[in-house]
Amino acid sequence: MTHARRQLLYFLEESHGGVADYAHEQCQALTALGVEVTLLTTPCYPVRSGAQYIRCPRLLEPRPERPIANRWWRGGRYVWIKLENYRRLVQTIRTSGIRRVIIGSFGEYLAPLWSPSLRRLQREGVVFGAVVHDPVRDYVIGPRWWHRWSVGDAYAHLREAFVHEDITLDTMRPNPGLRVTVVPHGIYPYPPPTASREAVRRELALPDDAPVLLAFGNIRDAKNLHLVIESLQHCRRAYLVVAGRVQSAGQRPVAFYRELAARLGVANRCRWMERYVPDEEAANLFAAADVVVLTYSRAFRSASGVLALAANYHVPCLASGGAGPLRTLVQKYALGRWVEPDDLQALVTGLEDLLQRPPQPHWLRFREENSWQVNAQRIIGRMFGDGGDG
Q1: CA–CA separation, 224 vs 321, rounded Å?
Q2: Mind listing the GO molecular function terms for this protein (predicted)?
Q3: Residue 173 contacts by C-beta under 8 Å, 6 or more apart in sequence?
Q4: Residue 150 Cα to chain centre, angstroms
């Protein structure tokens, strides 16, 4: 007896950043377990070395090549691309015949305009799941009634929702057919460092004996980088390395943080790498760091790919945020210090405590219980576990 082919279409509008990295590893793990995965994404999504899934670059790239100053033009472009990408998703489902679909770019924006076509496919037997990286959908754009309608429609066609911590999703209206499954955020398989800790520090003009803080990844307001810079006034031996790019228009530019550091008199203890950092170079940065800063605001309730990256290199973190998987993982596995969010004094106290009394993290247990294989097994169990044609 032969098993039906297990085919999965993975919808991803993000070309770079944490969600794109997550999708790659998840698709790789699914493929390793025998699922034929087609990643429907944009031409800007890179061809990744060793990728086993099928890359289908048919979507439009949401992020413009250059910032668009006119907000009406910027908004109109966003609306057009969002609706066109969902139209292309529907078209791909119909032409490919794939009946299992994961929405990797889950969001509610404009859902009343694109969700009806997905609900029609659902009634025809297509099974939709979504990776809900940010389960608390409380960022309101426009009237609240439109926000509630949009969130309700974004969930309406889903049978499966995959989250990183046990939570009751607020779907805004009853959705009795929706199943919520907790999946771990796996650890990224970054390469080992190519240079010693001492060599990397020399290259960055960092003292051998100074505590080095690393702020890695996309730069956005919610990460409270301004508080980290302010903390250098109080932690006078610490140095800060900022490696990454501003995530999107509307966020504070790097110039804001540079000027803040200069105004506070700590610019000489800051190092700036305002660009995408390739894997090998990232490995060297983590090798040189003593602490990874994940000082999110209270509004952040999601998981952090940088936390898994820090765990890969056994670097403890100083973390903050709202209730969610980041807090759970840091505290459950003693991966660093958790501090009150949006609070400079709490950040300073937590950093001093972390440096004076380093934690004893459970690195191995964290790795075993939060693997990509476990993630993929749970996805397969839900998406294909009820029979059907796959």
Answers
A1: 10
A2: glycosyltransferase activity
A3: 152
A4: 22
The whole-angstrom separation of Cα 306 and Cα 108 is 25
Predicted pLDDT of residue 2? 41
As given in the structure block, the two tokens for residue 21 are 């990295």
Cα(219)–Cα(86) distance, integer angstroms:
28
What does the radius of gyration of the chain's CA atoms come to, in whole angstroms? 22
CB 108 within 8 A of CB 151: yes
Q: Is 326 helix (H, G, I), strand (E, B) or coil?
A: helix
Residue 303 has what pLDDT? 79
207 touches 239 (CB < 8 A): yes
Distance CA 163, CA 235 (A): 37
Task: Provide the terminal-to-terminal Cα distance of the chain, rounded to the nearest Å.
Answer: 16
DSSP codes, 173-200: S--TT-EEEE---PPP-PPPPSS-HHHH
The span from the CA of 254 to the CA of 388, in Å, is 51
Query: Would you state the pLDDT for residue 116?
Result: 97
Alpha carbons 85 and 11: distance in angstroms, whole number: 9
pLDDT, residue 288, reads 96
Q: Token pair 């409270």 is at which residue?
A: 224
pLDDT along the chain (390 residues), means of 10: 77 91 96 98 92 97 83 90 98 97 94 97 98 81 90 96 90 93 89 94 95 94 96 96 83 94 97 91 95 94 86 95 91 96 97 95 92 96 68
pLDDT for position 3: 53
CA proximity to 180, closest of 125, 126, 119, 132: 132
